[in-house]
Write a structure and sequence with these properties.
The chain is an alpha/beta fold and about 270 residues long. It contains five helices and 16 strands. It is about 15% helix and about 30% strand. The strands form three sheets. The protein has a nine-stranded mixed beta sheet with strand order 2-1-3-4-5-6-7-8-9. A five-stranded mixed beta sheet has the order 10-11-12-13-16. A two-stranded antiparallel sheet has the order 14-15. Strand 6, helix 1 and strand 7 form a beta-alpha-beta unit.
Length: about 270
């Protein structure tokens, strides 16, 4: 592992975190523990799939920064582990967003996650694509065939490189979708984006960051079109506050995530 990729360790546990609207205090309790570290080889590759037992929940409070979803329903998320890559299903009440779709043929696994959350394709209103690589958008045509009411979104500079049967809406830095703030994180691809719920403290990093054995890693230089720009994007993510970060590749970090990303960014400066 390169020294520039080294960061503080985080926790790979499933945690329920609630912000009390009345007192604005945090209540943290462990819902289930999922240890996938034994499934990762020394080079950080997956040996076999592992996923959480139940959706995680983060209750939104009144400190949401301009979100139209403030005070509505808890944010729940479910990881969909698709071999070496992950997609995510996010829920607010009866509304669902899918973040990334995995490789071609991943739709049945995404459907299983929807079922776990008590939802169906009819509930899917948004499909958010972090970037144009095939392991993240390969099942987009099938997902949109099944989620007939969904709108697909991607970073503006990546939209033309994604194959879809209907138009993909372009996102820019600072936009909002599904109550999530869009953060432009170019470098891995020209239009790579991450999405953040600042109240829930929940970041979907895509491939702007990676994880292995509890360590937050920088973008992979072998698959990044501009590694210097990608490292600058890490700095942008380090400027935000969040407890949880989930990745395209690697286990979620559910405690002290932004501190770990800040430590990484300091090695890249």
């Amino acid at each position: 592992m390169k020294a520039s990729q080294l960061v503080a360790r985080g926790e790979a546990t499933s945690t329920v975190q609630t912000i009390s609207v009345a007192s604005e205090t945090w209540l943290n309790c462990t819902a289930s523990t999922v240890d996938c570290s034994s499934l990762i080889s020394e080079d950080g590759r997956w040996r076999s799939p592992c996923s959480a037992r139940r959706p995680r929940r983060v209750q939104l409070g009144r400190r949401d920064l301009g979100s139209s979803y403030v005070g509505r329903s808890p944010l729940l998320w479910e990881r969909v582990l698709l071999g070496s890559v992950s997609a995510y299903v996010l829920a607010r009440g009866s509304e669902i967003a899918i973040v990334d779709t995995g490789r071609n043929g991943s739709a049945p696994m995404i459907e299983s996650a929807l079922t776990t959350m008590g939802a169906s394709w009819d509930n899917v209103n948004n499909v958010i694509l972090t970037h144009l690589h095939g392991d993240h958008v390969g099942s987009l045509p099938q997902v949109l065939d099944l989620a007939t009411s969904a709108v697909a979104y991607a970073g503006r500079a990546d939209v033309d490189g994604i194959n879809a049967a209907r138009e993909i809406e372009a996102l820019d830095d600072g936009d909002e979708v599904f109550g999530m703030q869009v953060i432009a994180t170019p470098g891995h691809t020209p239009g790579h984006i991450a999405v953040l719920d600042p109240t829930a403290g929940f970041l979907v990093a895509g491939d702007a960051l990676n994880e292995s054995a509890g360590m937050v890693l920088g973008p992979n230089p072998d698959f990044s079109i501009d590694i210097a720009q990608a490292n600058t994007s890490v700095q942008r993510l380090a400027d935000r506050g969040y407890e949880t970060v989930v990745f395209g590749h690697g286990n979620p970090i559910e405690s002290g995530a932004s501190d770990a990303v800040l430590a990484l960014a300091q090695t890249l400066s």
